[in-house]
Amino acid sequence: MQDDQGYLQRAVALARDNLEAGGRPFGALLVKDGAVLAEAVNEIHLSGDPTAHAELLAMRAASQSLGPRLEGCVIYASGQPCPMCLAAMHLSGVSRAVFAIANEEGEPFGLSTAAIYQQLALPLAQQRLPVRHLPQAGATALYQRWKDLHAQG
Amino acid sequence: MQDDQGYLQRAVALARDNLEAGGRPFGALLVKDGAVLAEAVNEIHLSGDPTAHAELLAMRAASQSLGPRLEGCVIYASGQPCPMCLAAMHLSGVSRAVFAIANEEGEPFGLSTAAIYQQLALPLAQQRLPVRHLPQAGATALYQRWKDLHAQG
User: Fold this and answer.
1) What is the pLDDT of residue B153?
2) Phi and psi angles of residue B79, each rounded to the nearest 5 degrees, phi first
3) Does A55 participate in catalysis according to the annotation?
4) Phi/psi class of residue A48: alpha, beta or left (left: φ > 0; alpha: ψ in -120 to 50)?
5) Per the residue annotation, which of A39, A43, A55, A104 is the catalytic one?
6) Closest by CA position to B131, among listed A62, A64, A90
7) CA-CA distance, B33 to B73, in Å (whole number)?
8) At what angle do helices B83-92 and A83-92 cross, to 10 degrees?
9) What is the side-by-side strand order in the sheet with A35-41?
């Protein structure tokens, strides 16, 4: 973990460069076994893609060589990962994450996702974004078929 | 909302087709003003990208014509959106979401993300995935600079 400091400084430098280039102030690295497999910045200003966060792009880039399982990978992010990016880390098996600037520090600048974390922690019916469960007859047969196709042994 | 049923049936049909084509049983539509702007399926089996969920791909596709703000858009998903996808909806301003199969129904088949929702709702120090805040001297000056560059009026 001795290198955490160096990788994190690089993530902050990427964020700084991205800001000066017209982007949002976020950068990230993905490191595995001491090798930097991906560097990324927030690219929403370039691609118009609302999911183009630095951490998500770093994971997507690394998956092109590693595949979808990212066990053993460490994410270094200039800012506290948003719930989209943190959930992606959980989904892909990223081993740990380190960040420099917390949501509390970003709050006065409108650069915090604490409010979205709060939303996702609520029961669906209480969330601001309406998410409705509309059951479809027989739809769960789809999952039984998934299990039949992929059952172990 | 009368069309919710039809759009959702289409999302389930996409999921079914994707399963039979070797993918995971998830499909989604993005609809705005009664027009289907994007259809997508889970493409992890094709791209190796762990973020290639149907809902995320539908949002990314729609953003290529709409840009990063997706207000007025509705997502129809065969399965209950995972926290990565739901957070992306919050981030981009998607107006609402409708899904057919709930996490509770997916649980027996290993097709639920309820456990990840539970993780994200915990304080960082209690989450299974270690996420460490390592403050960097002067890093928040980056956010002040962001504010200075983008201050209104």
Assistant:
1) 45
2) -115, 160
3) yes
4) left
5) A55
6) A90
7) 8
8) 160
9) A35-41, A27-32, A73-79, A96-101, B131-133
Read off the tokens for A119. Answer: 């939303």
* Separation between Cα atoms, residue B85 and residue B49, nearest integer Å: 14
Q: 57-116 in B: which are within 8 Å (CB) of A?
A: 59-60, 63-64, 67-70, 78, 80-92, 94-102, 105-106, 108-111, 113, 116
**Between chains, do A4 and B132 touch, taking CB under 8 Å as contact?**
yes
Contact B96 A16 (CB under 8 A): no
**Start-to-end C-alpha separation, chain A:** 40
What distance, in Å, lies between the first and last C-alpha atoms of chain B? 40
> Binning pLDDT at 50, 70 and 90, where does residue B1 land?
low
- Write the pLDDT tens digit of every residue in B92-111: 999 999 999 999 999 999 99
Q: Does the reported pTM lie above 0.90? A: yes
Query: From the centroid of its chain, how far is CA A37?
Result: 16
